[in-house]
Design a protein that fits this description.
11 helices, four-stranded antiparallel sheet, alpha+beta, 10 strands, six-stranded antiparallel sheet
């Protein structure tokens, strides 16, 4: 019997060093036409994303909002605060760009709260260059050439942007340094800024509130530890910013739609590795 790994190719590639402040990584995902269809739960990870889809259309389901979309070609995905279900079937051919928290704003120069939990096409952004990039990457071979094309595009677009709000960059650094385990009251005091100002600017430049972003970062860090620590120390989460077991289980159920005990009982497979891509291989402050 053929293993699912034989019909799936997934690769993570670092961007050009000059792009490190803006882009976490590029990735390539392909499946053969024989790859069995299944739904994958993709967690929010603090990144917005550009996906160049050259294969079959795929579905996206946001259970929290009851939104279901079929996605065709090139699209931008704003910051997400909830997990989504995507269909991973045969005939997928995608090249993706994971933006660091300020990367997408530097590209589109539009308030990102408009794109939070949304999928946007280049037409909706009134930016023909992204559609042109989609076509150029498709026409370029091999994969190393596609990455070079992406690097050239983003170096031209991102390295000429004006200085962004400095306290937003500092707020991100603090949240990441504390791995989301910081009270927003303490954050605003540290930055010497009014909470409403911090929240408004954070939503503009990142897409979601600082409190929501910190929650995502905290759970992301906890989830990475969960696979290593849960069976050895069932209360490991108390050292990661959770007040008690109910607090941890509430977040676990929100992001993974199941309880920790039920999750551990489930037989993990390649599917789960795709769900966790980026949570293990990358960190937000890389």
């Amino acid at each position: 019997m053929r293993s699912p790994t034989d019909s799936l190719h997934y690769q993570v590639i670092s961007p050009h060093p000059l792009l490190a402040p803006y882009i976490a990584c590029y990735w390539i995902l392909r499946t053969t036409v024989e790859h069995p269809a299944r739904h994958e739960l993709i967690l929010p990870d603090g990144y917005a994303e550009l996906i160049l889809n050259y294969g079959r259309a795929y579905s996206w389901y946001d259970q929290q909002r009851g939104a279901n979309q079929e996605i065709q070609t090139v699209h931008l995905i704003g910051e997400r605060d909830a997990s989504i279900l995507v269909e991973l079937g045969g005939g997928i051919d995608q090249v993706g760009v994971k933006f660091k928290p300020l990367g997408l704003f530097s590209l589109v120069r539009q308030p990102l709260d408009e794109f939070a939990n949304q999928i946007a096409s280049p037409h909706e952004l009134s930016d023909s260059s992204i559609q042109e990039l989609y076509e150029q990457v498709f026409a370029t071979t091999p994969d190393s050439g596609k990455i070079e094309r992406l690097n050239a595009f983003f170096i031209q677009r991102l390295l000429v942007v004006d200085q962004l709000e400095p306290f937003i960059g500092k707020a991100l650094q603090v949240i990441l340094r504390y791995q989301g385990n910081i009270r927003i009251e303490d954050l605003k005091d540290l930055l010497d800024v009014h909470y409403k100002t911090l929240e408004r600017k954070f939503k503009t430049y990142v897409g979601i509130s600082p409190k929501t972003f910190a929650r995502i970062v905290r759970f992301k860090n906890t989830y990475k530890q969960f696979h290593r620590m849960a069976q050895r120390d069932p209360y490991f989460f108390l050292d990661l910013g959770y007040y008690d077991q109910n607090h941890f289980i509430k977040d676990f159920k929100y992001f993974l739609h199941t309880t920790p005990s039920a999750y551990l009982r489930k037989q993990r497979s390649l599917s789960d590795e795709i769900v966790r891509r980026g949570l293990v291989e990358r960190s937000l402050n890389s």
